[in-house]
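Obj.: predict assembly geometry.
Materials: sequence records (below).
Method: joint structure prediction, all chains together.
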Amino acid sequence: MPDNNNNNWASARSLVQHARPVRVPEAALRFTHTFGLGGMALVLFLVLLGTGLLMIFVYEPTPEGAYKSILHMQDETLFGRLIRGAHHWGANLLIAVTVLHLFRVFLTGGFQGVRRSNWFIGLGMMVLILVSGFTGYLLPWDQVSYWAITVCTEMLAYVPVVGQGLQRLVVGGTEIGAATILNFYALHTVVVPLLLIMLMTWHFWRVRLAGGVIVPSDREDAVARGGYVPYRPNLIEREKAVALVLVAFVVVIAIMFGAPLDLPANPGTSPNPVKAPWYFIGLQELLLHVHPLFAVLVIPSTLSLALIGVAYLPCDGSSTGRWFLSAKGRRMSALAAATAVVFTTAWILVDEWVVDPGGWMPGSAPVISDGLLPFAVLLAGVTAFYMSLKKYFSATVGETVQAMFVLFAVSFTVLTVTGVWFRGAGMVLMWPWQI
Amino acid sequence: MADIDKPRRSFLTRLATLFGGLALLEAGWIATSFLGGRRKATAAPDKSAEQIAGPVERFEPGSVTAFGDGHFYLARLDDGGFLALHRKCTHLGCAVPWNVDEQRFACPCHGSAFDIRGDVLSSPATRALDQFAVRIDNGIVKVDTSRPIRRAVFEADQVTRA
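Observations (raw structure tokens):
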């Protein structure tokens, strides 16, 4: 058959095409509506899959061999630095892009009704991507990775009752060693990617089921009157452009900066300071201010439950698809962001230099003076802020919840920035140029 | 005919679900047993062996001696009692070096400090350094490094005396 080849090619193409709708609402195409973040995450995942698959053939998952195999990859392998650099920067970008994607979906109100299940799938993938970053962090087996993973797995031990068992399960013993590296390698290269591919497929299918990307509510009429355009070229060419620019960006920063590699891991000497991977530094910073029970369990699980709970809030869906839902929502969120920056910074400084609740109440348990007390103050402050925001702006539940989300997101960002750039030796506060 | 088939069909469906569930449980059991067995294989070889630190006289009262391979410090208190302290900071697990001049263990990571008995001198650590069991046998100090012992604060009965 002369056109057999042609048919195969056509069927491969139609597989890609069938993953997309034939026609897409023009109103959802504007770049600033979604910033293409979900698509970027997919592109980065593919970059990581490609570079990771290559590195599996070179990397040796043992405490003795790991660092050496990285050196071999870097110094004696053609394109070794490029592959490792692209994997490193791709991974960091993927975490950033995924967080931003979550923000975008939340701030345009795409987490309720028909999109609720996809919000949950997305949260699941967010967790998997963090696990992937975390397990990959250990593999180079240098000082930075060894001690960062030590610090993070020790955080686990603060969870009451199950914490120490959980830590032993993750570490595969009492000390980070051969069992840990094998554990992390299996999770990083097989288990997590496989689960991610499954969830991704489900995620994309649910987007189609929900009728594609959320449409701005003020443009819904226009869409209903026939504001549809063929997906090719309108959507596909935009997607190609974003993907190509992103891949080029990853390659350029991989070439310019490469992937960092510290001295080989030495369990006898901790460097100073020791910091968690940047996406967990916010938690580490929190740990400097409140009791471990609250920093690693109460506060993170409260916020996680809140992320799940918002999907069930009684928001009216009339203004979804618009950033911050309305002009009023935008003003409220700006106020919340400013409040978060001022209060979180003030709290860090005051806690560092002025207040010592444990000193005021000698004899009281640290879990009360450093845990329950600050948490209660925080909770009261947040509740008061919520009530006054809602009343002053006479806003809807949806708008107020958006502003509260911004409040927490910006607070966590301030904690992260402080931990990354303002903590030097001994985790003392200092300017970035003094570190 | 169809009426006769209905209960049979639903019975078979339920039976299939039951067997499917059982098979899943079985697979889960096999998987956890398999992964549980891995822990024994990867555990450090014969950690139960005691480490011999040395004769009692070698350690001055008020001194701290590091045993790098055993991950511990042997502290001899001013009154002559012995304590074996785990090298790991109880805050987030960094290795704490002994500072002779300041007579304290100062953690490089987050600024926790401990005294010679392992008690917390400054936070963020909330617990005293873990200890290992010490035994003195015919004037020889022996330390069981197989299992760190958690404790909240230093207490007199944790000290081993010659």
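Conclusions so far: DSSP finds 18 helices and two strands in chain A.
To do: check interface contacts against the pulldown list.
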